[in-house]
Prior knowledge:
Layout: H1 5-15, H2 20-38, H3 44-69
Helix pairs in contact: 1-2
Amino acid sequence: MIGAAPASAAVEQCRFIQAKAEREACYTRQEAALAAKRKPEPTADTKTLESLQQMRQEDEAVYKSLRSICRGC
């Protein structure tokens, strides 16, 4: 509950702004900030998947080069 207090305080501040344009700009900034917080960051799983795909490509290149070197093996 303590962590949620500053966010609700920021919402309350926009409510009391008298000028309509400034109040709407305040709400727009808050929406952008909340959207940025909600956007999930790339997880370690996606990084791991990318590295595995790169390793498979490198392995495939090595296997192709080995086939051309050692045809009778």
